[in-house]
């Protein structure tokens, strides 16, 4: 079940984040992620709109959206890989926002393939200054919503 993040979710969310991000990024020093923990906990999570996927009282995945368009995090417990939890979380935010972007490391090929399947396309490539790893900026647009004209608006003069 997907539901909005609540304050008591912070500890299990942070455990999932650290375990999952370390597993997903073996090409980046593990201590980089440990050093980033306080920023995630104190800055990014409070500033984002976050939803969790809960099953039988356990948090098994989450997605965080910053500034109503940037997916800052999407993580799922490894035991649930391939069970459509990530897809459900992505579709949940795609139903709410007409445009989404994210940054993913090029070496994280599993995530790159996943986002591509969800309709994201690469719009930029750069080197992350903190990790020196190549990062891809990917974007998804809900074409129907992006091309919709608000009711009652005049689109020509």
Topology:
Blueprint: E1 2-4, H1 10-24, H2 30-47, E2 48-55, E3 58-66, E4 70-76, H3 85-94, E5 99-105, H4 109-117, E6 121-127, E7 134-141, H5 143-147
Parallel strand pairs: 4-5
Antiparallel strand pairs: 1-2, 2-3, 3-4, 5-7, 6-7
CATH class: Alpha Beta
Count of runs of 4 or more consecutive helical residues: 5
Cα Rg: 17 Å
Spans where pLDDT lies below 50 across 5 or more residues: 146-157
Secondary-structure arrangement, i.e. CATH architecture? 3-Layer(aba) Sandwich
Average pLDDT reading:
90
User: What overall geometry do the principal axes of the alpha carbons give?
Assistant: globular
* Alpha carbon gap, first and last residue: 47 Å
Question: Which strand order do you get reading across the main beta sheet?
Answer: 1-2-3-4-5-7-6
The CATH superfamily label reads Gcn5-related N-acetyltransferase (GNAT)
> Share of helix among residues?
25-40%
SSE order: EHHEEEHEHEEH
Q: What portion of residues belong to β-strands?
A: 25-35%
Overall number of structural domains: 1
Strand runs, count: 7
Could you please say which CATH topology applies here? Aminopeptidase
Describe this structure in words.
- By secondary structure, the chain is α+β, with helices and mostly antiparallel strands.
- The chain has a single domain (about 1-145), classed as Aminopeptidase (3-Layer(aba) Sandwich).
- Helix content is about 35%, strand content about 30%.
- It has a 7-stranded mixed β-sheet, sandwiched between helices.
- α1 crosses α2.
- The longest helix is centred in the first third of the chain and has 18 residues, at about 30-45.
- It is globular.
- Residues about 145-155 have low confidence and may be disordered.
